[in-house]
Amino acid sequence: MKDWLLYLKSVEGKYGDEFDLSQLSPGDVLKVVTQHADYLFTTIQGRDAELLCLRAGRPNGRVRIMGCTFGMSSSIKPDHLFCGGNLELTYHLEGVPMTHTTTAIREIYWRGGVKAMS
Predict the structure, then answer these.
(1) How many separate helices (H) and strands (E) can be counted in the chain?
(2) Considering the entire predicted model, what is its pTM?
């Protein structure tokens, strides 16, 4: 509960440090910079994405972005990423479901894919 309250106090009056995953469309690119690694996602559909991370020991390939956890707690804000939170994603390793949680997010970048104009 303490992590949740600290988060609420830390974002009071701030804008631009949070990303709503519902904004993603197929082909969009999302870069998440944490304390120890850069994660580059290319959106496939919904929260499913192809992940490229050059740091050893990190997942690569097809993943599902779940949202952000609050510090060391197990509380998660689903479908949102925010600076200071820990990115949580799921994937399969040799058929076994796995969960990966990153260190704190420092920066979030989003580039929309090519979309048809009507």
Answers:
(1) 1, 9
(2) 0.79
| Tens place of pLDDT per residue across the chain (118 aa) | 455 556 555 544 443 478 899 999 999 999 999 999 999 999 999 999 999 999 999 999 999 999 998 876 678 888 999 998 999 999 999 999 999 999 999 999 998 754 433 3
Q: Report yes or no: 106 and 33 within 8 Å, Cβ to Cβ.
A: yes
Tell me the domain boundaries of the chain: 17-111
**Largest Cα–Cα distance in the chain?**
48
Pairing status of strand 48-52 against strand 76-78: unpaired
Give the C-alpha separation, 60 to 98, whole Å.
12
Cα gap 101→39, rounded to integer Å: 12
